[in-house]
From TrEMBL:
This is Argininosuccinate synthase. Its EC number is 6.3.4.5. It is an enzyme of class 6 (ligase). Residues 4-165 form the Arginosuccinate synthase-like N-terminal domain. It is found in: Cytoplasm. Its main location: cytoplasm. Keywords: Amino-acid biosynthesis, Arginine biosynthesis, ATP-binding, Cytoplasm, Ligase, Nucleotide-binding. Homotetramer.
Length: 398
């Protein structure tokens, strides 16, 4: 069998160009691997055929939607994962999963290399190659688009000259990545941060300024994982899909951010992630009801570090694994119901209850009959303030 390279194939411009370049530059047969993470919009059989039409000797499609939801999205939800407090890691979460299947496929075919269609300016080149290095350090990673220094306009010309069956054209220069967790849009007129997004840019969400009657739903969680909507038990994938529909109808989850990329530049990105943002809102509310104060405060820092690690392509790294153990331990009592109101681009918590709740009505109430002994507060405050009082006396004495 001739030498082979396994290419992570999306069906878009960069990876379609990559098939031809890899063949010419390496002399290796190219196997295209498309991983379905809920990107939708196109039949995966069409994607498979396009790879063959572009010159791949074999084209493989893996349905990884359930795996993506269970093993990647749910850990992200338990971590309330938001990079720079805003971005729910839409693309970053899919890359380690795709890399895992790249490595597995390469091993099964006896290939000594894998490839991706990333440019040299983005984060994904790091995510793919760092993940493959962690999973299969003997494999070589090749980046045809990056290593040819192809700009997007040059790639379009290359595709036209070689008759590659792609749908991208110079008239629609957006770069779009999407999966069941959300959708990312960049390039084109968005490269100027002063330019506002236009409504035609969005697909997962409807215009939040168009007035609609609110939808109110109840999400049930068990150990930090959503398991039902309005009492109907659903898989993790089905809940994400349903929340995309419900929250997307009200324009929830639109994000416009100038983001600090791993490669050292700032990039303007527009995201829409209705399910992600609504579920994180609900999960955080349930945690506020069930986590001790010190655990909750400490977890906020862990969440930020967890998000940074995933954004930086270190899903399979040692620190990320260790943080997962901590996060999983915090979730053992995060069970209960959260009621959400969806309207006008917002998911608002309107009710929360849990059998594991640390909220004690008798302690919290200000009405007669409360069980909180207010007489204890005076001595507590004196002791709490004592270090400040002592240091203040020292400062005044200088």
């Amino acid at each position: 069998m001739a030498d082979r390279v396994v290419l992570a194939y999306s069906g878009g411009l960069d990876t379609s160009v990559g098939i031809g370049w890899l063949k010419d530059a390496t002399g290796k047969e190219v196997v295209a691997l498309a991983v379905d993470v809920g990107q939708g919009g196109e039949d995966m059989n069409d994607v498979r055929q396009r790879a063959l039409d572009c010159g791949a000797v074999e084209s493989i499609v893996v349905d990884a939607k359930e795996e993506f939801a269970d093993d990647y999205l749910m850990p992200a939800l338990k971590a309330n994962a938001l990079y720079q407090k805003r971005y729910p890691l839409v693309s970053a979460l899919s890359r380690p999963l795709i890399s895992k299947h790249l490595a597995l496929t390469a091993k099964s075919l006896g290939a000594d290399s894998v490839a991706h269609g990333c440019t040299g300016k983005g984060n994904d080149q790091v995510r793919f190659e760092a993940a493959v290095a962690a999973l299969a350090p003997d494999l070589t990673s090749i980046a045809p688009v990056r290593d040819l220094a192809l700009t997007r306009d040059k790639a379009i010309i290359y595709a036209e000259e070689h008759g590659l069956p792609i749908r991208q054209s110079a008239a629609s220069p957006y770069s779009i990545d999407k999966n069941v967790w959300g959708r990312a849009v960049e390039t084109g007129f968005l490269e100027d941060p002063w330019n506002a997004p236009i409504e035609d840019l969005y697909e997962y969400t409807q215009d939040p300024t168009v007035q609609k009657d609110a939808d109110e739903i109840t999400i049930t969680f068990e150990a930090g994982i959503p398991v039902a909507i309005d009492g109907v038990s659903l898989s993790a994938l089905a809940i994400v899909e349903k929340m995309n529909e419900l929250a997307g109808r009200h324009g929830v989850g639109r994000i416009d951010v100038v983001e600090d990329r791993l490669v050292g530049i700032k990039s303007r990105e527009v995201y829409e992630a209705p399910a992600a943002m609504a579920l994180i809102e609900a999960h955080e509310a349930l945690e506020s009801l069930t986590l001790e104060r010190d655990v909750s405060r400490y977890k906020r820092g862990v969440e930020a570090e967890w998000s940074n690690l995933v954004y930086d392509g270190l899903w399979f790294g040692g620190l990320k694994r260790s943080l997962d153990v901590f996060i999983d331990d915090t979730q053992k009592y995060v069970s209960g119901d959260i009621r959400l109101k969806l309207q006008g681009g917002r998911a608002t918590v309107t009710g929360q209850k849990s059998a594991q709740s640390l909220y004690d009505f008798d302690l919290a109430t200000y009405d007669t009959g409360d069980t909180f002994d207010q007489s204890l507060s005076k001595g507590f405050i004196e002791l709490w303030s004592l270090p400040s009082k002592i240091s203040a006396r020292r400062d005044l004495a200088q």
